[in-house]
Automatic annotation (TrEMBL):
Biased segments, Low complexity type: 7-20, 28-38
Name used for this protein in its record: Uncharacterized protein
Natural source organism: Rickenella mellea
Start and end residues of each stretch annotated as Disordered: 1-74, 239-264
Length: 264
């Protein structure tokens, strides 16, 4: 038994028990699956990634039901048409901050995560093609990419618990799938026909990229192998910038006064 790390480069199930993107049972809801969706029921390898990006006015999708009783977060469709300018990934908590050209900031978060009571370690995972963008060296990067489509998708992956016995089950969870427009000249962003495959040159239609959350425990007494692995929902939340403090306001006024004095 290896570390149980998720792989998504082939269409087969690896020794860890975690299947590829193409082997996952994926759906958006039990009714009304949109033809523009990145995935559909019992995905077998073909995708709709080559279809033209749908316009925001005609993308009507049924939101997948969350694992929890109450849905949280905002519709990822709000990102469609926005230009992503900065990405920041936390090294302490499982969250991803996305800043856009219009000044709006969103975060990809893990449902049920409590920073004060963390429990089993959670981490955001993604397709290899998305790592250079969403997991940059240093934890942050300036970019310039148009979001042409974004939606929640339901995935089902193989989970296991080998702490005391060998238990395996299918774990359903929500992920967020992104489509981006062509990057500016000189900017390299991996593209795929579906998360988990290779390919994607400049000039091709935008491809789907997927972000999900995993929970894992390791046993140092057994060589650091993964003894538990499961998955949890991710969701999108708009981050509201706090108003400037009185001290910051005074500092801004002093800077403005100093600047005005120099211009006289």
């Amino acid at each position: 038994m290896d570390s149980g790390e998720h792989t998504s480069s082939t269409a087969s199930t690896d020794d860890s028990g975690s299947s590829s993107y193409f082997d996952r049972v994926t759906e958006e809801s039990s009714v009304g699956v949109s033809p523009e969706s990145p995935v559909s029921h019992h995905h077998t390898g073909s995708t709709n990634a080559t279809s033209p990006p749908p316009s925001p006015t005609r993308r009507q999708r049924n939101k997948p039901a969350p694992l929890r009783l109450q849905s949280i977060g905002v519709d990822p469709g709000h990102l469609v048409g926005k230009v992503l300018t900065h990405v920041r990934r936390s090294r302490t908590h499982p969250n991803l901050t996305l800043e856009f050209a219009d000044g709006v900031v969103y975060q990809v978060l893990v449902d049920g995560y409590d920073p004060l009571h963390r429990g089993i370690a959670r981490a955001l995972e993604m397709d290899a093609s998305l790592s250079p963008l969403f997991d940059p060296p240093g934890g942050h990067a300036a970019v310039e990419l148009m979001v042409t489509d974004c939606t929640l998708v339901r995935l089902t992956d193989k989970a296991f618990d080998q702490k005391h016995s060998d238990q395996r089950w299918d774990q359903s969870h929500l992920a967020i799938a992104f489509k981006f427009g062509d990057p500016p000249v000189g900017v390299q962003v991996g593209g795929t026909d579906g998360p988990g495959t290779s390919g994607g040159d400049r000039g091709e239609e935008s491809k789907w990229h997927c972000v999900w959350a995993a929970l894992a425990e390791y046993d140092d007494t057994r060589g650091g192998i993964c003894v538990f692995r499961s998955y949890d929902d991710v969701y999108l939340e708009r981050r509201v910038r706090p108003p400037p403090s009185p001290r910051q306001q005074r500092s801004h006024r002093r800077q403005r006064s100093s600047s005005d004095g120099k211009n006289i």
